[in-house]
């Protein structure tokens, strides 16, 4: 057991932990959460012996093997696979000792070290390193490339692989999914579920935490508070605790009402019943945990677009790419109510498509129609890196809008937790999370009617991600987003498009369906046949999948028919509501017509509710059979 007893920890003059206690038992998988700057990474540094407590005691069993994920990687001429193998320091020690024994032709020592190598499984270490690299998205031809040839994000993946390679009793991972796509994140989830040691993870990916952890340690008010359960369970427990505080009650009720209003609006306009079921479940859950975020320092909303034409952008047989097309024959219409999540393997062209929609990358073929009232707010992955580090948040907004009043800017930036002197301070010393928040603020200030977001949650903590999700729910324009944050996607988009093998098309299903599809297709997409399962196993899996699809086909057909009926019924209801909006209908001479119309509306609503109930029942059955 690892224990912190009456622990106090400071960084300079800043108090992080104050006389707090924590017990960590063997085999626990714990998510460490808290606002940026609350002391999460400093806690890891203490556990690694890199930082001493100012007061109190840290107790850890003697001989505990600790592995951790480094955040920086120096350029190195070592190959990627050798860098990962270096993570197993004991293997390298035995390897060097064996080389010395062989050079000295010492038979007894050679035999001893061969025995030690066998004990640690050293003879298959290269194969294990290849498995780690493949799982994290590296192609087979990249295994021998030098570390120096990889970009920063890929070097972080190498650090993660090296940490996973190290034999450990305690594994500390700080933001392991920050530079991972969805496929690699799913692989990491499965790896960590199988991990036998004690695991502590700092992560702002709530879906990832929910899949991996069984406890939460929350850094709150300079204390470490342990909660049993995953992140969603923590939110519910914290919401119950905060709900007991009378001062929070009114704010909680307002937030619950906002979500109820969003649910009503979503049901009224949802024409894509395929995603409605999982979306409604997510919204119900958000309503139940809303009080857990009432004390968040972030609260902002997207202004209503000044103009919102019915059609914003249309692509007809468009090809996008650089010298050669990455995605071809794209047919995509972005309307005022469009909310699309783009899905696809890493490198398939999602970001390229967003750049082309934004007009930053010329299309290679086809026709593009843009509304003359189109106002794009584009957040790119590199947005944080191109901010002028010599400027302040205030100055960056004033450059966009010279007529803006200083107090209006201060009020606006306060919603992103930039207050006081931070508003006029140069951003050179801002953290990655603060710069990401600022980059998002600059997009919000533009009053877009089309939002294009490429991995907007990178570097954001859980509270800011929650605030962004809430803001996107209330956004009245169109949205196209690329993100590996499944919670964000589940709560903000109505439909999915997948990019695969150079084609962009609507994906028939929700994120759960896509995860299963991705796992089926990951082998052919990544080209990692060197570490794949046997071909026979793959063939059998495909046959089983085909048999399951055939079995589920009648149910899917019924659901499809219900979707068409729901869409027709909703369209008729919308027509009735337009007629009921006529003020002359409420004059005395038209009272009979009004009564008849209201009766028809009530019957149609009842019929729609019955159709939706049938759809939910059959969709639940389909989901159960698909698992």
Q: Termini, distance in Å?
A: 37 Å
The low-pLDDT segments are 270-275, 523-538
**Strand residue percentage:** 15-25%
Count of DSSP-assigned helices: 20
Largest sheet: 6 strands, mixed
Structurally, the number of domains stands at 4
Summed over residues and divided by their number, the pLDDT gives a mean of: 82
CATH class of the largest domain: Alpha Beta
CATH architecture annotation of the largest domain: 3-Layer(aba) Sandwich
Shape verdict:
globular
Can you give a write-up of this model?
This protein is an alpha/beta fold and 627 residues long. The longest helix is centred in the C-terminal third of the chain and has 46 residues, at 535-580. The two termini are 37 Å apart. The protein has helices at 40-47, 80-85, 89-103, 107-119, 125-135, 152-165, 182-194, 206-212, 231-243, 246-269, 273-289, 350-358, 393-400, 406-414, 432-445, 462-474, 486-492, 511-526, 535-580, 591-626, and strands at 2-11, 14-24, 29-33, 55-59, 66-68, 170-174, 198-202, 215-220, 223-228, 311-321, 325-335, 339-344, 365-370, 376-379, 450-454, 478-482, 495-500, 503-506. Helix 5 crosses helix 6 (152-165), helix 11 (273-289) crosses helix 17 and helix 13 crosses helix 14 (406-414). The chain folds into 4 domains: 2-235, Rossmann fold, CATH 3.40.50; 249-293; 311-530, 3-Layer(aba) Sandwich (Rossmann fold); 553-626. The radius of gyration is 27 Å and the shape is globular. It has a 6-stranded mixed β-sheet with strand order 5-6-7-3-8-9, sandwiched between helices. A 6-stranded mixed β-sheet has the order 14-15-16-12-17-18, with helices on both faces. A 3-stranded antiparallel β-sheet has the order 2-1-4, with helices on one face.
């Amino acid at each position: 057991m690892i224990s912190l007893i009456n622990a106090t920890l400071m960084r300079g003059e800043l108090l992080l932990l104050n006389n707090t206690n924590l017990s960590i038992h063997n085999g626990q998988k714990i998510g460490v959460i808290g606002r940026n700057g609350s002391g999460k990474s400093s806690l890891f540094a203490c556990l690694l012996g890199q930082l001493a407590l100012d007061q109190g005691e840290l107790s850890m069993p003697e001989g505990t093997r600790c592995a951790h994920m480094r955040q920086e990687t120096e350029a190195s001429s070592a190959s990627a696979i050798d860098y990962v193998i270096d993570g197993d320091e004991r293997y390298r020690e035995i390897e060097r000792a064996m080389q010395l024994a062989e050079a000295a032709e010492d038979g007894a020592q050679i035999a001893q070290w061969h025995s030690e190598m066998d004990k640690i499984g050293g003879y298959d270490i290269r194969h294990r390193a290849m498995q780690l690299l493949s799982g994290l998205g590296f192609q087979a031809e990249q295994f021998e490339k030098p570390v120096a040839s990889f970009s920063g994000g890929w070097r972080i993946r190498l650090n993660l692989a090296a940490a996973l390679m190290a034999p450990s009793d305690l594994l500390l991972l700080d933001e392991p999914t920050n530079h991972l796509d969805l496929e690699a994140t799913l692989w990491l989830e499965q790896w960590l579920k199988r991990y036998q040691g004690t695991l502590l993870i700092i992560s702002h990916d709530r879906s990832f935490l929910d899949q991996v952890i069984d406890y939460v340690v929350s850094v709150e008010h300079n204390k470490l508070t342990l909660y049993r359960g995953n992140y969603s369970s923590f939110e519910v427990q914290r919401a119950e605790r905060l709900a007991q505080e009378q001062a929070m009650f009114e704010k909680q009720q307002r937030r619950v009402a906002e979500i109820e209003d969003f649910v009503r609006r979503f049901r009224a306009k949802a024409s894509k019943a395929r995603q409605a079921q999982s979306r409604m479940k997510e919204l119900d859950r958000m309503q139940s945990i809303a009080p857990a975020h009432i004390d968040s320092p972030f609260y902002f909303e997207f202004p209503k677009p000044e103009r919102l034409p019915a059609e914003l952008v249309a692509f007809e047989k468009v090809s996008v790419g650089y010298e050669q097309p990455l995605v071809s024959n794209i047919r995509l219409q972005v309307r005022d109510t469009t909310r699309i999540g783009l899905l696809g393997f890493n490198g398939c062209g999602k970001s390229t498509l967003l750049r082309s929609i934004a007009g930053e990358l010329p299309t290679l073929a086809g026709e593009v129609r843009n509304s003359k009232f189109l106002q794009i707010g584009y957040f790119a992955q590199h947005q944080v890196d191109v901010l002028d580090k010599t400027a302040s948040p205030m100055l960056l907004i004033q450059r966009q809008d010279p007529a803006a009043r200083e107090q209006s800017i201060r009020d606006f930036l306060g919603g992103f937790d930039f207050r006081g002197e931070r508003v006029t301070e140069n951003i050179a010393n801002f953290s990655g999370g603060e710069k990401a928040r600022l980059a998002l603020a600059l997009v919000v200030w533009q009053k877009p009617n089309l939002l294009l977001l490429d991995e907007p949650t990178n570097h954001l903590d859980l509270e800011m991600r929650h605030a962004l999700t809430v803001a996107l729910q209330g956004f009245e324009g169109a949205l196209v987003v690329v993100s590996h944050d499944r919670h964000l996607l589940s709560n903000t988009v109505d439909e999915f498009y997948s990019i695969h093998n150079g084609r962009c098309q609507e994906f028939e299903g929700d994120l759960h369906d896509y995860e299963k599809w991705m796992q089926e297709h990951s082998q052919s997409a990544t080209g990692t046949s060197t570490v794949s399962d046997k071909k026979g196993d793959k063939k059998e899996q495909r046959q089983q999948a085909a048999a399951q699809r055939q079995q589920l086909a009648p149910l899917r057909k019924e659901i499809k028919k219900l979707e068409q009926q729901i869409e027709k019924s909703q369209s008729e209801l919308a027509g009735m509501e337009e007629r009921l909006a006529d003020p002359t209908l409420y004059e005395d001479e038209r009272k009979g017509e009004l009564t008849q119309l209201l009766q028809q509306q009530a019957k149609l609503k009842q019929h729609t509710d019955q159709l939706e109930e049938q759809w939910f029942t059959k969709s639940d059955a389909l989901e159960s059979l698909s698992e």
